[in-house]
């Protein structure tokens, strides 16, 4: 069990009508008690953020964006900036999700810029890292995760991680139903923490590192029971309130 306050964040991806999202967010809010040890956050699509913000205001559940632009404002058609997310009281924003990296060409440099833009706007970035199946099979997991982390730490400094959350999300486990075993996940989480500890022990000790990749209520408890796993980033299962709340309870 982690010594840091666990966080379970729901990534709705591009899902949810207004009515479905309203019902989902109401159910999550009802299910999370004010005294819970676990912190719960919801990251809906941009267009649903005002609805979610209105429903969650004043309660224990936080909310955030799934991405942001690197600029504050201007001629960037289709984009949403950090200050815009902050204006809707977002606490978090996901950066470097594997879908953004793979489908929208966001390389390590762009991810590092987005990380900085998030912090500049007063948001806490949830920085995603993780290897593909081919990279795991070629024994390159640690090298890939190290490269993704270093891109951010070399640009913004190790102290920038005081105000950030990491998510280890093996690409082969996202949305596939194939979860990393608790030991596979723990091994990478320990590697990440150890690598950061070599730069700053206190920052590494305080950093929340979430696991993401086909987390369900059936496997959450064992994953969250690992010493370096501080909660989860939950995709598909966050669209079902009952299932999502069971996952949150597994981290409590
Ligand atoms: C995600 O999108 O970050 C994710 C972990 O998805 P899923 O839980 O569906 O694998």
From TrEMBL:
Record flagged with keyword Cytoplasm: yes
One GO CC term, this protein: cytosol
Entry's Gene Ontology BP terms: gluconeogenesis; glyceraldehyde-3-phosphate biosynthetic process; glycerol catabolic process; glycolytic process
Keywords: Cytoplasm, Gluconeogenesis, Glycolysis, Isomerase
EC number: 5.3.1.1
NCBIfam families in the record: tim
UniProt subcellular location: Cytoplasm
Sites where the protein binds substrate: 11-13, 175, 214, 235-236
Active site: 97, 169
Pathway in which the depicted protein is active: Carbohydrate degradation; glycolysis; D-glyceraldehyde 3-phosphate from glycerone phosphate: step 1/1; Carbohydrate biosynthesis; gluconeogenesis; Carbohydrate metabolism; erythritol degradation
Enzyme class, UniProt record, top EC level: isomerase
Organism: Candidatus Muproteobacteria bacterium RBG_16_65_31
Purpose of the protein: Involved in the gluconeogenesis. Catalyzes stereospecifically the conversion of dihydroxyacetone phosphate (DHAP) to D-glyceraldehyde-3-phosphate (G3P).
Substrates-to-products reaction catalysed: D-glyceraldehyde 3-phosphate = dihydroxyacetone phosphate
Family from the record: Belongs to the triosephosphate isomerase family.
PROSITE patterns: TIM_1, TIM_2
Protein name: Triosephosphate isomerase
HAMAP family: TIM_B
């Amino acid at each position: 069990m982690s010594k840091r306050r666990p966080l379970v964040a729901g990534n709705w991806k591009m899902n949810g009508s207004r009515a479905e999202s309203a019902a989902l967010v109401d159910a999550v809010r009802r299910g999370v008690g004010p005294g819970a040890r676990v912190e719960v956050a919801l990251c809906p699509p941009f267009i649903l953020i005002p609805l979610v913000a209105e429903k969650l205001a004043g309660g224990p559940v936080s909310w955030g964006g799934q991405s942001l632009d690197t600029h504050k404002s201007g001629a960037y058609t289709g984009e949403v900036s950090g200050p815009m997310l902050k204006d809707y009281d977002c606490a978090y924003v996901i950066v470097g999700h594997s879908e953004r990296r793979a489908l929208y060409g966001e390389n390590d440099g762009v991810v590092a810029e987005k990380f900085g833009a998030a912090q500049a706007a007063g948001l806490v970035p949830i920085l995603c890292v993780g290897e593909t199946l081919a990279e795991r099979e070629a024994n390159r997991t640690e090298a890939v995760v190290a490269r993704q982390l270093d891109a951010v730490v070399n640009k913004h400094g190790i102290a920038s991680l005081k105000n950030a959350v990491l998510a280890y999300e093996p690409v082969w486990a996202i949305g596939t139903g194939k979860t990393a075993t608790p030991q596979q996940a723990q091994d990478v989480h320990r590697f990440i923490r150890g690598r950061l500890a070599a730069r700053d022990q206190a920052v590494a000790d305080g950093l929340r590192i979430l696991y993401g990749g086909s987390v369900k209520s059936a496997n959450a408890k064992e994953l969250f029971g690992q010493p370096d796993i501080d909660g989860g980033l939950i995709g598909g299962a966050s669209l079902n309130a009952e299932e999502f709340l069971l996952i949150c309870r597994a981290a409590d």
